[in-house]
Each structure stands twice: as C-alpha cells, then as structure tokens.
Amino acid sequence: MIRYCISLSLGHVNTILPYISDNGVLIPERAIFSWLINVGVILQIIFGYVRFDHVTTVRNFSSDRTLVLVNRVAFFVGLGVSFGLTLIGNFQLESDNKIHSAAATITPEVLNKSTGEDGHEIAALIAEHQQFAGHMQKIHWSGAFFTFVGGIVWMAFQSWITKRTSSLMKNPDESCCRCRYWTRVFLTILSFFFMVLGIVLALVAATDSSNDGGLVWDDSYHSMDSFRGRLSLTAAFCEWMVALLSVVFTLTFVPEYRHLHLGRPKVVVDWAERSSTEDNGNVVAVTAEEADLESGAARRLVPL
C-alpha cells in the first residue's frame, strides 16, 4: 500500500488499479518494493519453520507417517514460496512509463535528423537493454509462479494438516478446530479461483501476435477505455485478491500461535567422542564408558 500511494502520487502509474509489480518499477518505490519483499522473505521463512516445528509437537506425531511427510513437504514448499518472493523483489519488470517508452522508440534515422550523428550505436544499446529487460521479465514471472502457485499449494497442505492434527491434540476444541479448517479450505479455494481467473484474463487482455508469428506481451490496454483494458484491470484485481487472501490465511494461525512461547536460540556444542586423552604429554587409553562420560561432560548449551 505504501508503494502504491507513492507511485500514484508521483504519476508513475496511470491507473487506479495497477498490477502489484507495477508499483515497484521506478525510483523511489522500486527500492521500497525490494526492501519490503526481502523483509517479507525473512518473516516467511521464520513463520514456515515455526509452523513446521509446531506440527511436530502434536500427540503421536511420529507415528503418523503421512502427517510427517506432508509436514516436511509443506515446509519445503514454503521455502519455494520464499524463493519466488526473492525473484519478484529483486528482478523487477521494465517500466512502461511514457518517457521510457519514448526512449525505446528512438531509431537511428531520428537521431541522425536531430543531431546529425550516427545513432546506430545508441539504437544497439537500446536493443540490448530491451533484450535484458525481457530476461528480467521471465525471471520475474518465474518468481510469481513460485509465489502464487506455490502459495496456494502450501495453503492446501496447511488446511489438510489442520484437519489431521485436530484429532491428535491433547485438549482439542472440536468446534474451534472445525471452524479453522473450513475457513482455511474456503480461503484456499477462493485464492485458487482468483488465481486461475486472473491468469486467463491477463493472457486474453495482454497477448498479441508478433510479426514472426509468435506471441508478445502488450499490457498497454490497461485502462477502462477498451474491452481488453477492462479485462486487464479485472486481472489486476484478481492478483490483489490472491495476495490479500494469502495474508488473511496467515492471520488464521494467530489463535494457535498465542499458546506458543519462543525463547532465545541456543547453540549446542557437542564435542566429538575421544578414545584417548593426553596426560602430561602421555597418551592414556580410556574405556568406551569413560569416553561417553567425558563426551557428555563436555556438552554445553551456549545461549546466543
């Protein structure tokens, strides 16, 4: 929301409902976008690990192999979501600002007429810039795939885990567990619906045929002036809804996390077992039992 207000006030976006990434293209919102994404990645990893460890505390967890497997897979899917967020935040899209668009249309002929100099070198630099921008766009979209698709898969796993663990808790509140389960299922289905709808509308609105018979992405219709523009705005609305629903899904864990107590992290120093010790420069053989005792005595908990 901060990025949106800045980009809208500076005129960097010319619509009331841009795509999320369009709010982080130009300076200064570009830097804020990357910073917020990186902070979000750290929080996402911490949250995913706490959730993973929280599930392992339920009764008879280790005896339920399916739950153990799904919990582990969900943790790695969450890491994939964090990886996708880093791609989105650090490989931004190229700007569609009018100034940049005008610069991209400069041709050697225009430069020759205006300056009298050979503009082929500048045109080559512009073409090279557009090529690199295309690579950045593909990386950015790959990150969006990991984030949105992986996020919905993660939500589905967590909904299933909620149902599975409700019967394994020591003092289960059946009505509360059932409410949390169905709430998360509803949010997951709704997110999936908006994601699929947004992808379809975006492809219809912004896909054009190129001169060589291929397909190119052209999002210049993003306005209320045409039918394709309205489809593009609807696709942007779906993207914002998926992001909002993922935040709401995360907030459903607040009642459970109120009972968690996180302490300072500690490092366990475990010295390797030794079969001999030095005594005044002489090597003295010890038994296995003595080595175990020595190793146990050397074990310490060192707070960070």
Shape type: globular
**What is the helix content?**
55-70%
Sketch the topology as an H/E string, one letter per element: HHHHHHHEEHHEEEHE
Counted by DSSP, the helix tally is: 10
- Structural class assignment: mainly alpha
Q: Spans of 5+ residues with little confidence (pLDDT < 50)? A: 96-105, 273-279, 288-304
Number of extended strands: 6
Radius of gyration: 28 Å
Distance between the termini: 36 Å
- Proportion in β-strands: 5-15%
Q: Please, what is the average pLDDT?
A: 75
Q: How many separate domains?
A: 2
Q: What does the largest sheet look like? A: 2 strands, antiparallel
Write up what this structure looks like.
With 304 residues, this protein is mainly α. It contains 10 helices and 6 strands; from the N terminus they run αααααααββααβββαβ. α3 (65-90) packs antiparallel against α6 (120-165) and α7 (174-206) runs antiparallel to α8. It is globular, with a radius of gyration of 28 Å.
